[in-house]
Design a protein that fits this description.
With 374 residues, the protein is mainly beta. The longest helix has 16 residues. It has one domain: Beta-galactosidase, Chain A, domain 5 (Distorted Sandwich). The protein has 3 helices and 22 strands. A hairpin with a 2-residue loop joins strand 9 and strand 10.
Length: 374
Amino acid sequence: MPIIESIVHLTPAMFTERERVLVESTKARLVASTFRFDSGVCGLRLRSARGDAASHKTGELVLLPFQGQQVWSVVFNDRDLTMRSMFDQPYPTRVFLDTFGGFMQHCGITGVGSPGPKDTHPLHGELPNAPYGEAYVVVGEDEGGAYIGLGGRYRHTVAFSHAYVAEPLAKLYAGSTLFNVSMSISNLKRSDQVLMYLAHVNFRPVDNGRLVYAAKPTSEHVRVRSSIPSHITPGPGYVEFIQELGRHPEAHHVLTPGMAFDPEAVFFIDYLADAAGWAHSMQLHPDGNVDYIGHRPDQLPKGTRWISRTADQDAIAIVEAGTCEPEGFLTELEKGNVKYLAPGSTFRADFRIGALSGAEAERIAATIDAIVAG
């Protein structure tokens, strides 16, 4: 049975230029500390350690408690998993592309992806940089072990249109190189509330990295987006590259240097779940490191992969799991991907994210093989 040992409610006044320890669990070697980036954005650092020395870090998450509850950066075993971007810190803005450099952004709820000509929502909706009115650090224990985490509450209300509350929770576990993230969305209206949700999780790709994931690698089940969003400008040869990926999507399974993921390539993937309901995705590095993300297709039936490898940014969303695909409200509505929450009901999404050891990666790879073969 889950046990919550303590909850510390956060206020912006707790965050100063000098980093300070806020909570420490000496038994489990878990620490939360507060600081401010030079930009003024509040940052919360969660750390887990192994052994007797606090310097022997297993993992570190930096999160933005009051700005979207983004996971800004992730480090496990001294390896940074976060995309390379044009931003060395987050900036206090609601505009998605004006501070796009973090590891994980929650997207939605009234729109996801690039808005079409007749859409009114911003790029990826209002959630990525939403101003959270409530944020807290929690220390506890559940089936995954002892953890320290960040949670919060954002209420979004627009007269005659929307009223919902978003409640994310990110947990860093003692001694683990995986962390859990959940998001709950509750409808506060007495009528249906539109629901579009997607998790934008941005790993750092590596040359000759290999992608292994629970889907049949055919053009029927791994579809390449051929449309070009208004915020990107492709160069020579881009259209031909995308057309070739459309015919042979398996060609992107190894990230060969020089492949033209500039400015981006987007895939729509039909994921398959294991017996416990989880779908698995990995990037296997040539040096043996492994990046991992797991999601539940019964919660998030649409899988999107985004790859961008340019001179200015290097990123791979191995899977952006969502209730819909990222093509804007009206396009997703036409495709039948827009869902609705009944009055008083709650939607929930769960993720497992991080790095794997060789043995664990081999076990999950075998599970993926069995799912795809089955």
